[in-house]
Design goal:
123 residues, mainly beta, 4-stranded antiparallel sheet
């Protein structure tokens, strides 16, 4: 079992920045890819970004590319999401997730999830 704990959410004005962190513990050796997803009220959970521990590859959703940057420290089993130029439409609960499958963007392929952290962007 892998335990994931997010931190760093909060309230920010449009155009501002936030940095989310996700710390993994437990059976971390089984993790290949870690990802960020978000879910706004009344909407489905959507992919935001991912990083693969095995290949070092990253990927970002079109809606955040150029504004958000995912990074990670494999030795510390910690992942980050730097969010710049935030927009009101970025408001959501952001979830950290871990998968044994390489570079996948589908939430169904992630076995372990954090509790989520709220990000609210005011206009």
């Amino acid at each position: 079992q892998v335990t994931l704990v997010e931190s760093g959410g909060g309230l920010v004005q449009a155009g501002g920045s936030l940095r989310l962190s996700c710390a993994a513990s437990g059976r971390t050796a089984i993790i290949d890819t870690m990802g960020w997803f978000r879910q706004a009220p009344g909407k489905e959970r959507e992919f935001v970004a991912l990083i693969s521990w095995s290949g070092g590859n990253t990927a970002h959703a079109d809606s955040v590319r150029g504004r958000f940057t995912i990074s990670g420290d494999k030795a510390r089993n910690t992942m980050y999401l730097q969010m710049n130029s935030l927009k009101p439409e970025d408001t959501a609960v952001y979830y950290c997730a871990a998968s044994r499958i390489y570079l996948n963007t589908r939430a169904v392929n992630y076995d372990n999830w954090g509790q989520g952290t709220q990000v609210t962007v005011s206009s």
